[in-house]
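Please produce the structure of this protein holding protoporphyrin IX containing FE.
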Amino acid sequence: SRISHHGNSLRLPPSPWQLPIIGSLHHLHGALPHHALRKLARRHGLIMLLKFGEVPVIVASSREAAKEILKTHDAITATRPQTTTFKILSKRGQGIALAPYGDHWRQLRKICNMELLSQKHVQSFWTIREDEAARLVQSIASPSASPMNLSKMLAGYVADAALRAIMGDRLRDRDAFIQQLAEGDLFAGSNDTSATTLQWTMAELMRNPGVMLKLQDEVRGAFAAMTKVTEEGLQSRESIERCQILGYEVPKGTMVMVNAGALSIDPEYWDEPEVFRPERFEDTEKDFKGNEFEFIPFGAGRRICPGMFFGLANIELALANLVFYFDWSLPEGVSCNELDMTESAGITVRKKSDLWVRATPHAMLAR
Ligand code: HEM
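Below is the modeled complex.
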């Protein structure tokens, strides 16, 4: 369809059919939102215009469109929509992640970048991380005949490591505190993402014993001479001005979404994208830091995740410890191909069911 601007007729992106009040929302009903959006994009194009109720939303599902939004027009699209729902969710824009692009956000972002989440600060928390990783290893090593809920243990590790970095100490009533924090701020972005990444990674490794063995060999080889594993070794935006993306008009105030999940499993850019094959990154220089728009797990542009180094540091150390110290197996009667990999809906796509596994201490733990 077309709109008129100063007498010129401008081309809007294609849209699926809409209903009067709910707009395009019925197209998202019944499936996980990121799956439904990917399916719609296949039918209507790599850039399409939806309506979430009254709110116009541009969804970009190609590398080129993502680049135009997150690089060329980043200053125009870096704000967050201030709809009533967003205001409630963001406690009127006080938390950084949902704050509109402006002075309040700039100040919060500065604190994140210069203080808590700077690479220098993140490095300085290494003793906390090593300490928490050691506690995780100890709790896994405690002898028990029954399988353990690894999802829960990983979530606990991530929360303790983050809390100690932010607050200076572990909390006795951590779980209740997390429940409160999960509603807002910095902390929710930190915990869910890192714990979920670790849980999916371990689940994929359990399903792919060949990859698990390779990773164990690598980590055990690297740390063989040492006594322990050490550190040494979403999104939605809004346009504040009108602009054009791939020749299509994006009117001022349109919500703009880059479907980063769809890009990261698009066969156009990836060979067998749904197969867990970490080796695919061995021979490429592919960057995950917001420069290659088919792979932006931390976003890109002005609103790129400020907690990238913090998250990666926690994830890498925990994963290295898990595969260094233990051999892993599934509970009796569950085979690798039967492992439940169902996703659940949410800002972070969590694993629906917890990961239950058995850990056998590797010989190195005895040293
Ligand atoms: C695996 C771990 C993580 C992943 C995959 C991840 C991913 C993301 C993504 C995709 C965004 C949105 C970027 C955009 O809108 O363009 C984001 C924003 C954000 N993340 Fe993370 N994140 C992770 C860990 C963390 C951690 C550990 C922290 C804090 C300690 C954190 C704090 C934030 C904050 C504050 C924002 C909002 C930034 C803003 O709006 O300016 N994240 N993250």
